[in-house]
Amino acid sequence: MPPDAARRSDRSRRAILVAALELVEAVGYARLTIEAVAARAGVGKQTIYRWWPAKGPLLFDAFIELVPAVPDAVITHDLVGDLVVELRDAVVELEDRRFDQVCRALVHEGRTDLVTLLLMPRRVVLEERLRVAHRIGEVRADADLEAAAELLLGALYQRWLLRSAPLTREYADSVVGLVMRALRP
Fold it and tell me: What does pTM read for this prediction?
């Protein structure tokens, strides 16, 4: 019985994705090559190029398929505490070397569409938590919840992208405090 080509293909695809994440973490985006990924995955370069035109889209797929997704919103009776947890989790995510390397690579390649896909789940979680708070009167009736989520995350993303200052839990807490002053009824 001949080997199952689909199973071999799935195995090769997964090996490529794993190798790409391991290498970007080890050597960074600038030094990452398709040749190195192919060697580590035990496949030919042509196999990689058959599925991905460049290392940016390869890393995006690796990240989407192999890195755990952002969990659903945490909803307790403490809005500020919930927002602090979400922003602290965002800080941890942004400081993760793999996430950092993949996002910076995509920004460098001008793939803001892919960066948006990586960053959007956390914004959706924040908007969901803010909608619950809005319904029960924890935030002003006229609050723009999309803008509030953007303010919360935008400050973190700018500091991360520009490396203008350390990205810390304390900074995340401060951002939550500032935004909450504007949102309270």
Answer: 0.76
DSSP characters for 91-152? Answer: HHHHHSHHHHHHHHHHHHTT-HHHHHHHHHHHHHHHHHHHHHHHHTTSS-TT--HHHHHHHH
The reply to whether 71 falls in a domain is: no
Structural domain boundaries, residue 47: 5-66
Contact between residue 90 and residue 122 where contact means Cβ atoms under 8 Å apart: yes
Closest CA to 168 of 83, 90, 91: 91
Question: Are residues 61 and 83 both part of a single domain?
Answer: no
Phi, psi of 163 (to 5 degrees): 50, 40
The CA radius of gyration of the chain, in Å to the nearest whole number, is: 20
Whole-angstrom distance, CA of residue 38 vs CA of residue 49: 10
57 and 83 co-located in one domain: no
The answer to whether residues 155 and 102 touch, using CB atoms and an 8 Å cutoff, is no
In one-letter notation, the amino acid at residue 146 is E
Measured N-to-C along each axis, helices 97-108 and 55-66 cross at an angle, to the nearest 10 degrees, of 140
Q: What is the tens place of the pLDDT at every residue in 121-173?
A: 889 999 999 999 999 999 999 999 999 999 999 999 999 989 999 999 999 99
> For residue range 18-51, what is the model confidence (pLDDT) as tens digits?
999 999 888 888 899 999 999 999 999 999 999 9
Q: What is the SS3 assignment for 45?
A: helix
